[in-house]
Design a protein that fits this description.
Helix content: 10-25%
Oligomer: single chain
Number of domains: 1
Distance between the termini: 24 Å
Shape: globular
Strand order of the largest sheet: 2-1-3-4
């Protein structure tokens, strides 16, 4: 299974897969309001945090009030996913 990082944006949650990391356009990064370098850093941090975790956990990145990006683990249940309604 490929790793995905959930990125919290003004438009909702966007999942970025490891296979998409290199192909994101500058326009897409602009919509996410994150630089390519910062996204790579968050991605690497998310991979490290997910070591030994199960399917019920997700690595999520969000921008803090001071403009920095933070990655944390969030519990996830497919039963509460609004995209599966």
């Amino acid at each position: 299974m490929k790793f995905k990082l959930s990125v919290f944006t003004l438009y909702g949650i966007v999942e970025v897969g490891e296979d998409e990391l290199q192909t994101l356009t500058n326009e897409a990064l602009g919509k996410l309001r994150i630089s390519r370098e910062e996204l790579r850093r968050c991605f690497a941090e998310g991979l490290k945090l997910m070591e030994g975790r199960g399917d019920s956990d997700r690595a999520c990145a969000n921008e803090t009030y001071d403009g920095k990006w933070k990655v944390r683990i969030v519990r996830y249940s497919a039963l509460s996913d609004p995209l599966i309604e």
